[in-house]
Amino acid sequence: MTLLAHDRYCDEIACQVGRLRDVLTSGADPAATVPTCPDWSLEDLVRHVGQALRWSGLIVRTRADEDVPVDRVPGAEGPGARGDVAALDAWLEESGEVVVAALREAGPDAHAWSWAGDHTAGFWARRMTHELVVHGADAALAAGRRFEAVAPEVAADAVDEWLQIVQFVQRVLPDGPAKELRAAGSSIHLHATDTPAELDAEWFIELPDGGVAWRRGHEKADVALRGPLTDVLLAFYRRLPLDTPGLEVLGDRKLLEFWLEKATFG
């Protein structure tokens, strides 16, 4: 597995912030419920994203050695008045600029605390990229819009990262839902149907007793999820239903549904 270049992540963060701002300012109701995060409105979602950008930006800029409480992050609270789309948009724009500037100045190898044990600015560049991709899809759903396809190299890296997060959660939260993703002999295959062969946008995932294992490649599995890469990514993140037009589930659908139920941040 090869990570994207640090500047590529920074560029994508800026791109995805722009796409989220476009959804916010397109006439969508900021009070609309986010179907995939039903406890949130669209405004709640935007505030969550902006706060995460400013929080991670401060961690990178200060080369933090430990977690930073959100109440110590300048501007993290967002606009005071709710429902002010113009103010929310301006705050989100600035939030993106804060983290991109911090990441570009730091470079990928600079020290920066993270919850995952990878204490580098590069971790945050990658994490914020995919945070924005997934929550951008949430926002589009709340606004009743189709989420635009993500660049294939970004979407493929997001699948890799999600699989790594599930492995991490299994290790550090032994009593969390992901602990149940152990079914020796069971396997899942993800297959993007719209990418060039050199991208190798296929994944083989096993669920042995020792914890989730995965690799890139085309291998026969108990169940396969096939379709356009962005749709495969979003279905794998539970942002699209498995019956979405263009997606195919071949084989043991219940195994895939079991994975989707238990593969969470915890």
Automatic annotation (TrEMBL):
Top-level taxon of the source organism: Bacteria
Domain MDMPI C-terminal: 153-257
Cellular component GO terms held in the UniProt record: plasma membrane
Domain Mycothiol-dependent maleylpyruvate isomerase metal-binding residues, every copy: 14-140
SUPFAM superfamilies hit by this protein: DinB/YfiT-like putative metalloenzymes
Gene Ontology terms, MF aspect: metal ion binding
InterPro entries in alphabetical order: DinB/YfiT-like, Maleyloyr_isom, MDMPI_C-term_domain, MDMPI_metal-binding
PANTHER family named in the record: CONSERVED PROTEIN (PTHR40758:SF1)
NCBIfam families found in the cross-reference section: maleylpyruvate isomerase family mycothiol-dependent enzyme
Protein name: Maleylpyruvate isomerase family mycothiol-dependent enzyme
Species for this entry: Streptomyces mutabilis
